[in-house]
TrEMBL record:
GO MF terms held by the record: long-chain fatty acid-CoA ligase activity
Gene3D superfamilies named among the record's database cross-references: N-terminal domain of ligase-like
Protein name as catalogued: Fatty acyl CoA syntetase 1
Source species of the chain: Trypanosoma rangeli SC58
Biased composition (Polar residues): 26-40
Length: 360
């Protein structure tokens, strides 16, 4: 069977051709403390490079772009998700007879949020954080899995002149402790099931961050000395608030500290400005459009990789800028095997009609 498989393989002309490097370094930009600046390999002359440098400062950042898109598209669906009804634990045996427990996820009916409503949630959540006492330019950490509330949270932070820090939701305790200690954030957004771990790590370093939690808290939780606020309550505070949004216009100000996985030592906090995020998304959009040209909004993307990774975060932003629908899911429930009544792929049907028309 393996031999037949190897004999039937044919090289793909697009993938096998040598097209050279995608990016090259700009001479003279590397220093003792910073890496070199990279540019697109097709922009070789100094004039074009200078144009790109100018665009970094003058182009609309992601917050400005999303604000315009939400106003323009109004009632069009922006994001979709399925509320989790329950998780069932089923004991089973593997091929060696060893028993283990599998989780099955039961979902309720799909919900959609329009572009206009998405922006309302974003601004309201940011105002809610300010009502909690998070100061301007204060740090807010997001330690949660990929979900639509993650997206609302980070944009809410940005619309009220705060700085986001992101940490992988599956980061080990040592790495998480390092990131929390280094940022000393005014607030931490996390899931109810991880609050116990977060509080223990904060206590160990004497950090008194406000904890904003999603979903439910465990019943035996010791919260002494800490202020816990439900994510939905923050939203409600923001709706009732008079705190006006402050959309960033200076692309050189710090927007995000994105922590790496910490697989080779302590996690590293990668600093992004609003300009660097917009530049990265723009470069990625150019590559994505080569393979999947925009189909005038009639397309769906299924987000399941960590939004705490710059690649998935950039892709989600690209599809929102294209006016697409982004369905939020998780790796465990993509297929029908562990999702009831069916998996996320079947529910959201991710598609790009232009690609289908030219490749089928």
């Amino acid at each position: 069977m393996d031999g037949r498989d190897k004999m039937s393989r044919r090289p793909h002309p697009f993938l096998s051709g040598d097209k050279g490097p995608h990016n090259v370094t700009v001479p003279g930009t590397e220093t003792a403390t910073t890496s070199a600046t990279y540019r697109h390999s097709c922009t070789s002359d100094a004039e074009t490079h200078q144009q790109l440098v100018e665009e970094y400062r003058t182009r609309k950042n992601c917050v400005q772009q999303l604000q315009e898109q939400c106003k323009k598209l109004d009632t069009r669906a922006a994001v979709a998700y399925r509320p989790l009804e329950k998780i069932e634990h089923r004991p089973t045996c593997n091929a060696k007879g060893k028993e283990h427990v599998l989780e099955y996820y039961y979902y309720r009916e799909r919900q959609e949020v329009s572009y206009a409503k998405l922006w309302h949630y974003i601004v309201s959540f940011g105002a809610g954080l300010r009502e909690l006492g998070v100061p301007q330019r204060g740090l807010v950490t997001i330690y949660e899995e990929t979900r639509w509330e993650w997206l609302v949270s980070i944009y809410g932070i940005w619309t009220h002149n705060m700085v986001a820090t992101t940490v992988y939701s599956n980061l080990g305790e040592d790495a998480l402790k390092y990131a929390l200690y280094e940022t000393n954030s005014a607030a931490i957004i996390c899931n109810g099931r991880t609050v116990k771990t977060v509080i223990s790590l904060l206590r160990a370093h004497g950090i008194s961050s406000i904890i904003v939690y999603l979903d439910n808290l465990p019943v035996d939780l010791d919260t002494f000395g800490y202020r816990l606020v439900a994510w939905t309550e923050v939203m409600e505070k923001g709706v009732a608030s008079n705190c006006a949004a402050e959309i960033p216009t200076d692309n050189d100000i710090e927007a995000l500290i994105m922590y790496t996985s910490g697989t080779s030592g302590d996690p590293k906090g990668v600093l992004h400005t609003h300009g660097s995020i917009a530049a990265g998304v723009s470069a990625l959009a150019e590559r994505l459009s080569d393979l999947y040209p925009s189909s005038t909004g009639d397309e769906t993307y299924c987000a399941f990789l960590p939004l705490a990774h710059i690649l998935e975060f950039g892709i989600v932003n690209i599809f929102l800028q294209r006016g697409s629908l982004v369905g939020f899911s998780k790796t465990r429930t993509l297929t029908d095997e562990f999702a009831i009544p069916h998996g996320d792929f079947k529910e959201f049907s991710p598609k790009n009609h232009h690609w289908r028309a030219t490749h089928l």
